[in-house]
Amino acid sequence: MAIELEREARAEAVRSIERYFEQELDQRIGNLAAGSLLSYFLEEIGPLVYNQAVSEVQERLLARVQELDLEHHEDAFQYWRRRDASRGRR
After folding, report:
1. Which of 43, 52, 8 shows the shortest CA–CA distance to 16?
2. Could you give the C-alpha distances from 89 to 75, 76, 78, 80, 85, in angstroms and in order?
3. pLDDT digits (tens, 9 = 90+) for 19-43
4. Which of 18, 46, 52, 74 could crosslink 3 through cysteines, CB 3.0-4.6 Å?
């Protein structure tokens, strides 16, 4: 699955890469080179980040599903127990 960014997000990412090179590495990188570098990272490293995020979400969802029984459990065969309790006997 290819990871693609929306147009504005991609443009912002390219600007960020350009700024990083200029401020942190004291080098200028052109718009095309920054865009190519972004494409490389998205293709090469993006799936690693994506898969890790999916795995973490899966774990959280599984934990929530397992809690459903505790949060929404109803005991069966309670009619007579409630009726007897309302009459003052068990």
Report:
1. 8
2. 19, 19, 14, 11, 5
3. 999 999 999 999 999 999 999 999 9
4. 46
